[in-house]
Amino acid sequence: MNSTIQFIGRFHILILHLPIGILMVTSLAMLLIKITKGRALSALKPSIPILLSLGTVTVIFASVLGYLLSLDGGYAKEALDLHFWSAIALAVVATFITIVSYKYKQLFDKLSYVWALLLLLFVTITGHAGGNLTHGETYLVEHGPDFMKKAVGMELELAPPNSLAEAQFYGHIIKPILRTTCVSCHNKSKKEGGLDLSTYTSLLKGGRTVAVKPNNLEESELYKRITLPHGDKKFMPTDGKKPLTPAQVKIIASWINSEAKQKATIGSLKLSDKEMELLVQETSFSAHKVIVATDVDVSPLVEKGFYVNALPDGYGLDVSFYPEVGQKLTMDILQSLLPFKDQIIWLRLSRNTLDNQAMTIISQCTELKKLYVDHTTITDITGLKQLNNLELLNVYNTPEIPKNQLQELKKNNAKLNVVE
Ligand code: HEC
């Protein structure tokens, strides 16, 4: 790429504002003159052909620079084509109207609102297509209301589900997997193999081949590519990127085999026990329905001395017991956690007198994601193996816990972060 061409081409971004400004103002003036039958802006009327010429010249100039800029590469072909052809159409229309304004004055005056509207239309289309090209189609409405996002084909971000059963198979489970491993090469502007994996619609549309054929793994190129031997040159992801885990591959297979729908929830599909088990292990969604925390009467806990908060994302409870307040955390008090065991997501019992008996109660809180039992005298944490949802375990300063128990726990639960 010749750097002089590159240098000149980039001035497109500067110059393009001239034709937009000139042609917009000129067509608005033409409309106003027409509507007011010459009472407004009549002094401007003789200058209209000159303004149109100026607009046309700048359109052509900006188009040439735009062409040079496009040689730089890196633009999505479809978006570039639209901008390219609409700019050419605009140049032709503007030239034609300018000629009419000089040569066929009567016709020009008679139909001046037609010319003005034509110019406005083509300037808008060209300008908008150019904007989409640099900023992406979703830029304008990215922070706009949902109906606008839907109108441009954006997928709305889903709120986290209250339970695995309520999770949407595609939106909550498949999409995040593809986003992490595949979308860097398969998105709107970089479509390797013609394939965009960033939205459901584009995924189902496929690339050069059918990426996903519902209920048919053999004809789903996407599935073929992720199940090839890792050394195969068609294996996905390419370039030695971190492959999907065997569990993720199985989950994608379950999704394709259950019709590969966009909005179907896990609860609405007839998945086998094995498939469900895998989803429970691999996702952080609660296997039980967690009751929305604001609906729960937590006063029995508060009366016993617990501090209880609803979690910020609106479901589940964050429960703490602070020994500083002076009360001792007895088994009797701990028992009062049990009626809430399906709603307790965070449990902080740091610095309390906790013994192994306490563990029998804690290990029944199967929805737990965070557990703080640091600075306690616990010696046995084998019961925590049942807590499949656990993501954080703080056992700092609990020297009595055997190291092998911690290792075992980590081996069992890949999601688990242990603070030792
Ligand atoms: C590092 C870039 C990169 C990543 C990451 C990547 N791909 Fe690809 N993908 C490519 C390239 C390049 C091609 C085109 C060459 C080919 O067909 O092998 C392609 C082609 C494909 C095709 C064939 C499209 C068609 O219709 O011909 C599928 C399906 C596919 N990829 C799926 C995936 C999936 C699923 C992932 C994530 C697990 C993924 N890719 C991750 C680069 C990548």
Largest sheet: 6 strands, mixed
Which small-molecule species are bound to the chains here?
heme C
Uncertain stretches: none
- How much helix, percentage-wise, in residues? 40-55%
The total tally of domains equals 3
Global outline:
elongated
Number of strands: 6
Q: In angstroms, what separates the terminal alpha carbons?
A: 56 Å
CA radius of gyration is 32 Å
Structural class: mainly alpha
Strand fraction: 5-15%
Please provide a written account of the structure.
The protein folds into three domains: 3-148; 164-282, no CATH class; 293-419, Alpha-Beta Horseshoe (Leucine-rich repeat, LRR (right-handed beta-alpha superhelix)), CATH 3.80.10. The mean pLDDT is 89. Helices cover 45% and strands 5% of the residues. The chain is mainly alpha-helical. The chain contains 17 helices and six strands. Helix 3 (17-35) packs antiparallel against helix 4, helix 4 runs antiparallel to helix 5 and helix 12 (246-257) crosses helix 13. The two termini are 56 Å apart. The protein has helices spanning 3-9, 12-15, 17-35, 48-70, 77-103, 105-110, 112-135, 146-151, 169-181, 200-205, 221-227, 246-257, 273-282, 299-303, 331-335, 356-362, 403-412; strands spanning 307-310, 317-320, 344-348, 370-372, 392-394, 417-419. It has a six-stranded mixed sheet with strand order 1-2-3-4-5-6, with no helix packed on it. The longest helix is centred in the N-terminal third of the chain and has 27 residues, at 77-103. It binds heme C.
